[in-house]
Amino acid sequence: MRVIDAEGRVLGRLAVEVAKIARKGEEVTIINADRAVISGRMEAAVAKYLTRRQRGSPQHGPFFPRGPEGIVRRAIRGMVGFKTPEGKVAFAKVKVYVGIPEEFKAQKAEKLGKGTEDLQCEFVLIGELSKQLGYYYANEK
């Protein structure tokens, strides 16, 4: 099992790398999903995700997540090809967490994909995007 730290990593690049690993048959755990980033301005990102959430109907979908772990999982789902039998098996091997759960605190997490140090534009933390979409952190003070 591989533990990947999403802190400061660009979401799309991270999703591609995780999808490749999952399709090879390895289990992947992503921690700090709320600290991954999306490049671009906050207003543009919020408008894009609000448009996606307002599409369709609440009863029949399509269903787009508000929470950081859901946004990261949805990005990976698109990269893994979840409609094929191999993609479904691979997608089931991906676990995403906000923060660092107790069982992974002792393990060394690796960093994949481009980080914020490589970006030369504005970026948005997924945790902040989630708050703008109306997500509520139950354990936040």
Question: Any descriptors?
Answer:
39% helix, two-stranded antiparallel ribbon, alpha/beta, single chain, 5 strands, Ribosomal Protein L13p, Chain: A
Kindly report the name of the CATH homologous superfamily: Ribosomal protein L13
The class by helix and strand makeup works out as: alpha/beta
CATH topology: Ribosomal Protein L13p, Chain: A
Q: What is the CA–CA distance across the termini?
A: 32 Å
Looking at the overall shape, the CATH architecture is Alpha-Beta Complex
Percent of sequence in beta strands: 5-15%
What is the CA-based Rg, rounded?
15 Å
Largest sheet: 3 strands, parallel
Please list the strands of the largest sheet in the order they lie side by side.
1-2-4
Element-level helix/strand string: EHEEHHHEEH
Q: CATH class, anyone?
A: Alpha Beta
The DSSP helix count reads 5
Question: In words, what does this structure look like?
Answer:
With 141 residues, the chain is of the alpha/beta class. The chain has one domain (2-133): Ribosomal protein L13 (Ribosomal Protein L13p, Chain: A). The protein is 39% helix and 12% strand. It is built from five helices and five strands. It has helices at 11-23, 42-54, 68-80, 85-92, 126-133, and strands spanning 2-5, 28-31, 37-39, 94-96, 123-125. The strands form two sheets. The chain has a three-stranded parallel beta sheet with strand order 1-2-4. Strands 3-5 form a two-stranded antiparallel sheet. The relative contact order is 0.27.
